[in-house]
Write a structure and sequence with these properties.
By secondary structure, this protein is α/β, with parallel strands linked by helices. It has 15 helices and 15 strands.
């Protein structure tokens, strides 16, 4: 990050650091018990660096990508710091940009704090006010909220901040990208000045730096390298395919029974809907989640995915940071994202908290330029492979396939105008081929030896 909040201290990340066992973190035995039941054994870098500072009550600015364990990195210190306080008062507020993240954090809070007496409440839009009012007024000590709905409750006089000890701004960059800065400022100005504030963000654009300078006091800086996070535990594989055959290739991939829990990312809401409909027509149960779905539809899709009633969930990037499902075996990029950082967010949905997972990218010729930029961020070239037995020669309908529809499965084309580099060869100006970074894995054995573009 080029700028730092005033008086901030720097905590540089070492090239390699010893693994910290979760039980070594300075937490109450009841919290260690809850963490063990959630499967936490070795602390992730963000947890090992942030938790010891946070439990001391220090302000904190942490930059870490999705999938690094940051939710536990702020919830456990909140629970630790409020463990012995009397019940029935609001001691902590977690502000987060989306309903999915609010529900996720509230669920983590319930599980991590199962052996404590702390109560949490999730406050978010898209559902009725009354149940949330009752939850807040029924003795919740930790409130997890989206900014708009929280302001509704504040304006109606349902929240008392006099005993607040801890504020967390989660996914701060995304919160500001979504236009929440005025709401966030109004909320922060209404809170007690004497409090601990922790800010977590995937990136640190100037607006986030300015917010930290204004509202944090001499924060401790914690940084986790995003390229390392993307590589550890994830097997990256690119599957070159004509645009109009992407859905058919995905269908072929799903014959692999090891693909038990698959998160598929499409570029637009329309493409996500059409892909889910096509998969269901093929008797492959798939849920869909994006910004136009109602809250009930989102919850049903997520719960069906978690519960195994459908092994596929098709999503757009609006949900990339808002989905947390244990045991996602595969992430499939049905469309290559235009921004390399989006790829990091997507693949972070698998290999959660140092587990293993696979990331497949279906790349058409006009998406090669986007994939090249992703490889530059990752620091290595993603292996290419062909699926044995798949017919790559099938043609699009006469007259050419439209970019956002048509084709044998109703899919074709990348972004209008195509990428900067076309074809499947190496892109102009590209550096020398490099091997995988430490922690990355070659493509799955099922597809044979990974090789270059056909």
């Amino acid at each position: 990050m080029s700028e730092k909040p005033r008086h901030a201290e720097s905590s540089a990340s070492a090239p390699s650091e010893p693994t910290v066992r979760f039980e070594e973190l300075p937490l109450h035995p009841s919290l260690h018990a809850g963490a063990r039941e959630m499967g936490y054994h070795a602390a992730t870098p963000i947890q090992s660096r942030a938790i010891p500072e946070a439990v001391l009550g220090r302000d904190l600015v942490a930059t870490a990508q999705t999938g690094t364990g940051k939710t536990a990195a702020f919830l456990l210190p909140i629970l630790e710091r409020t463990l012995d306080l009397p019940p029935g008062k609001i001691y902590a507020l977690v502000l987060t940009p989306t309903r999915e993240l609010a529900l996720q954090a509230e669920e983590f809070l319930r599980k991590l704090g199962r052996y404590t007496h702390r109560k949490g409440a999730a406050v978010y839009g898209g559902v009725g006010l009354e149940p949330q009012i009752q939850a807040v007024r029924g003795g919740a000590e930790i409130v997890v909220a989206t900014p708009g709905r929280l302001l509704d409750l504040m304006e109606r006089g349902h929240l008392d901040w006099r005993d607040l000890k801890v504020l967390v701004l989660d996914e701060a960059d995304r919160m500001l990208d979504m236009g929440f800065l005025p709401d966030v400022r109004r909320i922060l100005q209404a809170l007690p000045r004497e409090r601990q504030t922790m800010l977590f963000s995937a990136t640190m654009p100037p607006e986030v730096v300015a917010l930290a300078r204004e509202f944090l006091r001499s924060p401790k800086m914690v940084h986790v390298d995003p390229t390392t996070v993307a590589a550890v535990g994830v097997s990256h594989l690119a599957l070159p395919v004509p645009s109009h055959l992407k859905a058919e290739l995905l269908r072929e991939l799903l014959r692999d029974e090891t693909m038990t829990s698959v998160l598929v990312f499409a570029r637009t809401k329309h493409r996500a809907n059409r892909l889910a409909q096509q998969l269901n027509r093929w008797s492959i149960p798939a849920g869909v989640i994006h910004g136009n779905r109602s809250q009930n539809q989102r919850i049903q899709a997520l719960e069906g995915f978690r519960g195994g009633s459908h092994r596929l969930l098709v999503a757009t990037d609006i949900a990339a940071r808002g989905i947390d499902v244990e045991g996602v075996s595969h992430v499939v990029n049905f469309d290559v994202p235009h921004e390399p950082e989006v790829y990091i967010h997507r693949v972070g949905r698998t290999a959660r908290a140092q587990r293993r997972g696979d990331a497949f990218t279906l790349v058409s010729p006009d998406e090669e330029g986007d994939l090249t930029r992703i490889e530059r961020l990752l620091g290595f070239e993603v292996p290419r492979a062909k699926i044995p037995g798949f017919d790559y020669s099938a043609t699009a309908p006469a007259g050419g396939a439209p970019r956002e529809g048509g084709g044998r499965s109703g899919f074709a084309g990348g972004r209008p105008g195509g990428g900067r580099f076309r074809g499947r060869g190496r892109a102009p100006g590209r550096g020398p081929r490099r091997g995988p970074s430490p922690g990355s894995r070659p493509g799955p054995r099922r597809f044979g030896r990974p090789h270059g573009p056909p």
